[in-house]
Design a protein that fits this description.
This protein has 3 domains: 2-310, Ribonuclease Z/Hydroxyacylglutathione hydrolase-like (Metallo-beta-lactamase, Chain A); 329-446, SCP2 sterol-binding domain (Nonspecific Lipid-transfer Protein, Chain A, 2-Layer Sandwich), CATH 3.30.1050; 453-512, Rieske [2Fe-2S] iron-sulphur domain (Rieske Iron-sulfur Protein, 3-layer Sandwich). Helix content is 25%, strand content 21%. It is built from 14 helices and 25 strands. It has helices at residues 66-69, 87-95, 185-210, 248-257, 298-312, 315-318, 329-338, 347-352, 390-400, 404-411, 423-430, 435-446, 449-452, 473-476, and strands at residues 2-7, 10-14, 19-22, 53-55, 77-80, 100-102, 109-110, 116-122, 132-138, 143-147, 166-170, 214-218, 271-275, 278-282, 355-359, 364-368, 373-376, 384-387, 415-417, 454-457, 460-463, 477-480, 483-486, 492-494, 510-512. Strands 6-5-4-3-2-1-13-14 form an 8-stranded mixed sheet, with no helix packed on it. A 6-stranded mixed sheet has the order 7-8-9-10-11-12. Helix 9 packs across helix 10. The termini are far apart. Bound molecules: FE2/S2 (inorganic) cluster.
Amino acid sequence: MKITCVGHAGLLIETESTSILCDPWFNEAYLNSWIPFPSNEHVEQDKLLHCDFLFISSSGQDRCDVEFLGRVDKAVAVILPDFKSFNLQNILIDLGFYNFIHIPNNIVFKLTNSLEIIVSTNSSNMYGAMPTATIAIGDGINSIFVQTNQLDKKSKDLTTFKQYDIHFAQIAAPSWYPMVTENPESIKDILSKQLRNEQMQGFLEVIKTFNAKVVVPYGGPPCFLDKDLFYLNDVDSFETGSKLFVDAYSAIQYLQNNGIENTLLAYPETEIVIEGNFIKLTTPNLQSKGLDIAYVDKKRYLTSLANKRCKESMPDKERPTTDLLKQSYLLEKLCEFIEPIVPELNLIRVGLNGRILISTHTESVVIDLLDLKIEKFSGQLCRFKFYIEDDVLKRAIESSNNEAFKSLFYSCRFATELDGFNNDLVYAFLMALSPEAIENLEAVLEKNPKISDEAEINGYRIQRYCPHLKADLSQYGQIDQNIITCTVHGWQFDLESGKCITQDDRKLFVKKLNNKK
Ligand code: FES
């Protein structure tokens, strides 16, 4: 079995008779924020266009590169994970792919006479907003595990191929928190450091669980070359770095400090050949491709990439010359996305329990999930606030339509002030502005008792957990006529309307029962 790294999470896996291309990514993603690191622009793309199988692990733009996939031979057999959402399949159909092999979750599937695979989906992060899939591939003698997402616990099904020879291990899930918050830089650094330590502990646990002969950290992070995003790159060593996006070099340092020695650092065009018990790595000539300093002098490497990109890029790709947004552009667009999904909003309203402000220089609009309306901002109290440049928002909407917020969030080109414990939910909601995605999100929330549980009190069915800090109202709710008081901090709600009497930004979701006396 031969594996050629093609950059980021991209792998070309070849056996004597079969080839599988996984997650090829070459073109800038998420509003041109994400760029493959180390650069893979020298990788010969033509040889990737005619493989036997194609595996795309998610609809993320760094996995599903529509510009590159547009060139791939459409007769390729697409290995399709068993996602609840049809989003990825629809994107591929739109590109012209038609030959899909639907793979049930977590079973050994005979792909060819000599090749077996196991595909496992994971939608545990951010309420399933970005489902991903991993793939394990075995040829009867050797096997590899291509872990394309951040696993947080052992998946027994994926250990079916005895011991894996190689574990391609994604280091961490991409995130925009806490970089986009309105906190001082020093606080953001502390929060990032905490989060990255947690992520790395999870990463180590997964490595130990699968206990492969060799570990290749891969699949991120991208680099950020725009002036205003450059600070997101982690250019320090693992010990001194404070950014969220830990790269493969730092991940290897971390693993070695924790007793994992069997690691390999892969670059685009690195080849790894597995033959029985032997694993042979061939690294391309790094100097000739300018990759020799990619990790060891990362700041200089990225600065030179940024300068090169600046010279090459079309001015209108960097800063599109948009007309000023007309005053009602945002309102009209949000209405267009949200009105069709309003009838489906049930537990999402309970979980978010508030208003969302979307603000640009030109326009500020409130998505009011208390009273289900979208309106111009006029001083309403809003729990969730997003600030976006006009041209960024317009690009996001025009390039991704009802996936605009997905592009926007991953791009890190926004700022936010959020309140409460359900921040992941507000992101998940805004990333799910289609009827299918909302239905999936509602189904996920159904399983969350803090959001879906109800209690019957005094002839009303009410949400069981207080909209303030989730005290159990069946225990701490005190009723006096039609007012329920949460005795934990004293918030009061009118049982007839659910209106919060003590606050203007929350609501108790209430249904009057017919048998009320
Ligand atoms: S938890 Fe109910 S008022 Fe604070």
